[in-house]
Amino acid sequence: MLLVYSSRYRVDIGPHVFPTQKYDLIAARVGGPFVEPSPATWDELALVHTPEYLSKMRDGSMTDDDIAQLELPWSREMVDAFRWMTGGTIQAARIACGWELGSQKSEVRSTSDFKLLTSDFRVVVHIGGGLHHAFPSHGEGFCPFNDVAVAARVLQQGGVERIAVVDLDVHHGNGTAFIFESDPRVFTFSMHQQHNYPMWKPRSSLDIGLPDGTGDETFIRELERGLPKVLAHRPQCVFYLAGADPYEDDQLGGLRLTREGLRRRDRFVIDTVRSADVPLVIVLAGGYARRVDDTVAIHAATIDEASRSR
Ligand SMILES: [Zn+2]
Fold this sequence. Notes:
This protein is α/β, with parallel strands linked by helices. It contains eleven helices and eight strands. Strands 2-1-3-8-7-4-5-6 form an eight-stranded parallel beta sheet, sandwiched between helices. Helix 10 (259-275) links the parallel strand 7 and strand 8. Helix 9 (215-231) packs parallel to helix 10 and helix 10 (259-275) packs parallel to helix 11. The chain is globular. The protein binds zinc ion. Zinc ion binds at residues 169-171, 243, 245, 285-286.
């Protein structure tokens, strides 16, 4: 397993339910070495987003409605931080697919780091990303750019023909579903709390909308039912959005999974994808527990599970 992360994701968005400090806290907790990404270029972002939207993001000409929908204050620093984070998901995908082993862009601090980087990594965890509410022409729900969609388009440009997205954040992956709705090469799977944001849920290839208060056992059972359908698509790369917000003490989620249930979820996804010998890119997505420590511990447990995989 390899970790991608940058301290450049840190951005001050004022008092907010979205704990942007979680990335640094997770990185400090799990320790390095980390592969340091470069920011997504505007051309890469344009593989998914419209020129009009990107120019508004670039020059700050967002309307009040745009800002209200994005639910983040605009600043150049905010845009840069999320460009960097999108670059992190691209980098993670490239490494998982074996394209960028030991890249000079990576921050190699020691000989052992170099050895680590030049061996074969098929599971890469990005301590960031999962911005699944971003659409081509607008951002919403704290998601300015759809990092997974951009990385998937980059892989497609490089000749990867079949990709899957497994989105287990508590919220439906509306932006991702919309972007790939008419692209049969990308199988999108979203399992989420049905009666929660977003109101409008464009169709994924497979949607499982769960009732409020679902709990561990039903969640795992539904996952066991859904995931084989994803692998039947025979993906050459799987992106897994391991949202921490199905957690029982999350402020924005109501699925009531325990920390142990979330760990079982992660283990099942990682084991299933790796048993099929498919490269796996894990991104964090949401997490709004009352105690930030809980969110950090849930994401760290995902990384721990990934580190045990082949
Ligand atoms: Zn979420």
